[in-house]
Amino acid sequence: MTGREHLDKATDNGTAIAAFWHYSLFYIFYNLRSFSAAVMVSASRDGEYVARVAQLLGHMPVRGSANKQGVSGLKHMLREVRSGKHAGIVADGSQGPARIAQPGAILVASRTGSPIIPMAWAASHYIAFSSWDRLALPLPFSRIEFMYGEPFFIPAGIKAAEIESYRKDLETRLNEIYVTVWKRVGHGLHDGRK
Fold first, then answer.
1. Which residues of 120-138 are buried (b: 16+ CB within 10 A; e: fewer)?
2. Number of domains observed in the structure of the chain
3. What span, in angstroms and rounded, lies between the C-alpha atoms of 134 and 66?
4. 17 phi and psi angles, rounded to 5 deg
5. 141 φ/ψ sector (left φ>0, alpha ψ -120 to 50, else beta)
6. Which of 34, 35, 43, 115 is disulfide-compatible with 69, CB 3.0–4.6 A?
């Protein structure tokens, strides 16, 4: 595990927002089970399975998506973070495209003052499904590399153009640690992209 000090620093003074790519969500939920969090989960039928896994691992699903339910999901997430819960947000959303950040984590961070902690994992042996995100699960006895990036804060009241700038920053940070962890386990990128 690399960068655990970043997580400790971010959570010492309150809530933090874990941001990660969709491929990694099940192992992220497992790895962060001691940090119970409100996690944004799609309101779709497929999202029901994700919500159940999140609950089994001690997290609280907040249902929302890119459609009309997304706004209510975002409002619910803001309430949970303001009440003292950590947040978990899949940065590329429930439908992708993969490894392209959406603005959800930026909006929650700006409106709550909680820092975003980018994170990624890779495994020496894993299975990847043929889904849009190449959802991955580490296999037993694998060597797993887990990395926390440096926390970063989003100013309150940012405008639309600033949201885009921070969104790109989050995407860059997540992709940098994603590439790093997969190189450390001796693989190319799990999704085959460059």
1. bbbbeebeeeeeebbbbeb
2. 1
3. 20
4. -115, 110
5. left
6. 43
Cβ–Cβ under 8 Å, residues 25 and 90: yes
Pairing of strands 116-123, 126-128: unpaired
Stated pTM of the model? 0.92
Q: Please indicate, yes or no, if residue 134 is contained in any of the structural domains.
A: yes
| 82-86, 106-110, 156-160: segment of lowest average pLDDT | 156-160
Task: Work out the mean pLDDT of the chain and round it to a whole number.
Answer: 91
Note the pLDDT of residue 67: 52
| Residue 194 belongs to some domain of the structure | no
- Higher local confidence (pLDDT), 73 or 31: 31
Dist. CA 86–CA 117, nearest whole Å: 11
Please, which contacts does 170-173 make with residues 24 or more away whose CB atoms are closer than 8 Å?
170/19, 170/91, 170/101, 170/105, 170/106, 170/116, 170/118, 171/91, 171/99, 171/100, 171/101, 173/118, 173/149
**Domain residue limits at 22:** 4-184
Does 121 reside within a domain?
A: yes
CATH assignment at residue 22: 3.40.1130.10
Q: Residue 41 domain-assigned?
A: yes
